[in-house]
Specification:
The structure holds two protein chains of two kinds.
Chain A lengths: L4 H12 L2 H26 L4 H16 L2 H15 L8 H26 L3 H9 L4 H31 L11 H12 L2 H30 L5
Helix pairs in contact in A: 1-8, 1-9, 2-3, 2-5, 2-7, 3-5, 4-5, 5-7, 6-7, 7-9, 8-9
Chain B lengths: L3 E12 L2 E12 L3 E5 L6 H8 L7 E6 L4 E2 L6 E4 L11 H10 L6 H14 L15 H14 L4 E5 L7 H17 L3 E5 L3 H7 L2 E6 L2 E7 H4 L6 H17 L1
Parallel strand pairs in B: 3-8, 3-9, 6-7, 7-8
Antiparallel strand pairs in B: 1-2, 1-4, 4-5, 9-10
Classes of the chains: A mainly alpha, B alpha/beta.
Chain lengths: ~220, ~250
């Protein structure tokens, strides 16, 4: 068996055409997961027990169920309960299905990041008559963000790769496009190596961006 | 005529069912320097934290006599912590400005201007733009003192301000505290193990043992002939410790 270099290079532009959809899905999932994750972690930190229970059940449930099951549940299952969902595009379903799933991971990350901020910081704020809202905004969150950043970055990389799961409900993003090309040409090795390399390049580019952001945020941790 | 500014009556604190402070009573006068001494675990830090509202009291009362108010002294005091507790993500000058800026008392610009004056007073103005992580222990504590002074409160609470410092920094911070005490008319409540310093700057000494006050007297009386065995033991052991580090 020979590796068809010509086809290998030929397939790149075809795959890259589907890249905007991959990025669109990834950005959408990240946004939903950060917002919902922030809300869930906030609920998890409240003293009112039912809110904490809700957050705990949410995290436990969404972390336990596999991503494909959640996608199928959202795409095929939920419209039976809520018929209006039948008109929603599969891309939107994916964004919310995986966004809600990753929100559970983000919530746990935010919660532990907030807990890892030295308690002395809060004591100082209290002893020096600093408003609680200002303490949260100017001290707690910036320090928690630095603590959370590496883990959030890893989840964002995971999200980028998991967008490839959308082919299971017929959405042709980059991996789906590759699957079609491989099926038509029978050049599976060339196509999937190309797909893998594009994902790799994306992750390398994102990792560089993340390092720059971490460095900027960590300027106070000499 | 001296004026009582703080009055503590029958103060008790229990943590997780364990009695930490028992029937604490004392008064402090305006401008007075009051030092809490005692062996580790005697309850000195718990007392200063209770005065500041960082620890709930189980019974008793704390009175502040400017606008007769019961409760803790948080609104009337600035606090210096043993482990500095500077805000890690703020520069030295932002830390000092924070009590006025983040309480809405002054705008950030006004607070920074005032903070610069305090940093200069404590000889750390050269480090104004540095983050706490890049400051030495002594510099951190001087920034901590400047931050406590920023509150403009009439009471200054210092919880073992030198216990986390190396021997060279201890002297630097003690000098800074002595200068501040001379320059202001604040009532100071200090927890320390620096006996020589306590003797130099204190008007009164409160000696605590096992959560109780067992001596509350003038500095001269305290360091004079002591008959109490706990105090004698403490002074002997602390003197030995101080000689070792001198």
């Amino acid at each position: 068996m020979t590796f068809d270099w010509h086809y290998f290079f030929h397939v790149f532009p075809l795959l890259i055409k589907a890249l905007p959809l991959t990025l669109y899905l990834a950005v959408g999932i990240v946004i939903v997961s950060l917002i919902v994750g922030g809300v869930i972690s906030y609920l998890g930190l409240q003293s009112f027990r039912p809110l904490r229970w809700f957050a705990s059940i949410y995290v436990s449930g969404f972390r336990a169920v596999p991503a494909v099951v959640q996608i199928f549940l959202a795409y095929y299952g939920l419209p039976e309960l809520i018929p209006a969902l039948k008109t929603v595009s599969p891309q939107t379903i994916i964004i919310f299905a995986l966004g809600f799933k990753y929100a559970a991971y983000m919530a746990e990350t935010f919660r532990s990041a907030i807990h890892s901020v030295d308690y002395g910081q809060q004591e100082a704020a209290k002893a020096l008559h600093i408003k609680q809202s200002q303490y949260v905004l100017r001290v707690l969150w910036p320090q928690a963000a630095v603590n959370a950043l590496p883990t959030v970055g890893n989840y964002i990389i995971g999200i980028l790769k998991e967008t490839s799961l959308v082919f299971v409900i017929g959405v042709s993003e980059m991996f789906g496009e590759g699957k079609l090309l491989a099926g038509a040409s029978f050049k599976y090795l060339e196509v999937y190596v190309a797909v893998g390399l594009i994902y790799w390049a994306l992750v390398v580019a994102y990792s560089s961006l993340q390092r720059a952001v971490e460095w900027r945020f960590k300027r106070f941790e000499v | 005529m001296t004026k009582t500014i703080i009055e503590v009556n029958d103060l008790s604190v229990s943590i997780n069912g364990k009695s930490i402070l028992k029937d604490i009573q004392f008064k402090a006068e305006k401008g007075q320097v009051l030092t809490l001494l005692g062996p580790s675990g005697a309850g000195k830090s718990t007392l200063i934290r209770t005065l500041n509202g960082l620890q709930d009291l189980s019974s008793g009362e704390i009175l502040f006599y400017d606008d007769i108010s019961k409760g803790h002294l948080a609104q009337h005091s600035g606090m210096v912590f043993q482990h500095f507790n500077l805000f890690k993500n703020l520069t030295a000058i932002e830390n000092v400005a924070s009590p006025a800026w983040l309480s809405g008392e002054l705008t950030k610009k006004e607070a920074l201007t005032k903070a610069h004056v305090l940093l200069k007073q404590l000889n750390v103005d050269q480090q104004a733009q540095q983050y706490p992580a890049s400051l030495s222990g002594g510099q951190k504590q001087r920034v901590g003192i400047a931050r406590a002074l920023m509150t403009n409160a009439p009471i200054l609470l210092l919880d073992e301000p030198t216990s986390a410092l190396d021997p060279e920094s201890i002297q630097e911070v003690l000098l800074a505290i002595a200068d501040i005490i001379k320059a202001t008319d604040k009532t100071v409540i200090l927890v320390t193990h620096e006996l020589r310093f306590a003797k130099q700057i204190s008007d009164k000494i409160i000696f605590m043992y096992d959560g109780q006050i067992i001596a509350n007297e003038t500095t001269n009386a305290f360091f004079g002939a002591q008959t109490n065995q706990h105090i004698q033991n403490f002074l002997q052991s602390e003197n030995a410790e101080n000689i070792r580090y001198a």
